[in-house]
Amino acid sequence: MKKNSLIVVVSFFIIISCKVDPKIKKILPSDNLQEIIPQGWPNPIYTYTGNPISEARFKLGRELFYDPIMSEDNSVSCSSCHQQFSAFAHFDHDVSHGIHERLGTRNAPGIFNLTWHPNFMHDGGINHIESQPIAPITNTLEMGASITPVLDKLKASSKYTQMFADAFDNKLIDTKNLSQSIAQFMGLMVSYNSKYDLWKRNENNVNLTDAELRGYNLFLSKCNSCHKEPLFSDFVERSNGLTPSLVNDKGHELISNLTTDRYKFKTPSLRNVALTEPYMHDGRFKTLQECLNHYTTPITNTLNIDPLLIPNGIVMTESEKSDIISFLNTLTDYKFINDKRFSDPNAN
Questions:
Q1: Nearest CA-CA partner of 234 in 242, 225, 221
Q2: Can you give the pLDDT at residue 71?
Q3: Which domains does the chain have, with CATH numbers?
């Protein structure tokens, strides 16, 4: 080979080797996908017996969760109202925002530790995690779709045809497989690594400050009856004395048809509560201070009020409220909200 020819060949390979590599998406390791039951927690209600955990199902559920193809006009995804940075709540939005700028009637709650929930939605109207995704998909104020057209869109996608085939032995793109994949993705969102958790487990030499510790003890005496450790809710539907807003939402009565259930709503978990503002089923309170103020002032709507609540208000000083809020901030799980397994698979 001539010397000049050799230089050309070498230069060619140097140029090729210096090209920017195409973006390669990280593959989620299968050994990081497993059911987690933290120490001291009760057994979850939902198990994966009929929905075995697999990387393929998880990745499919993750893709569907973030894809607006699930809505009627391809404009809204599950993640539109459930943002990871706010523990999968809808930050700074009183109620959910759906297709065509439609407003829902209820605040979008955070998503985590769902396998411990006996029921779902603010009114407790859905009793199975695999049934839950269908409600927002078909709600005319949210994603506004019908299941058959959504399935048709997925069937027309070569990407989803392959992903469903990888995830399910029957390879079907149907309601059951769609629901199970999204349920698996959401069910594996376990939040258990807050400062409070590390302190409880005696990990990493984490200690609560004096204010946080005072707040914890106050919480146990004044709040724990409904917001029980370690999940920080007992998930019971209760009336907490809120007066109806512009939307006269009757809560659990809409499900049971019993007037004794009017204005009863599911007790939310207080984990990650510092991230999930605004608060209550209709997002009426913007701060934790406002929430505590509600419980420490006389309650005017006593219809079906929960017997654990005091109509004249819980006795609590401003200093005690401050300490409780300090403790509530220790329930923020920064590891959870930054976990790449739960992030948008198509984000830059």
A1: 225
A2: 98
A3: 51-191 (1.10.760.10), 195-332 (1.10.760.10)
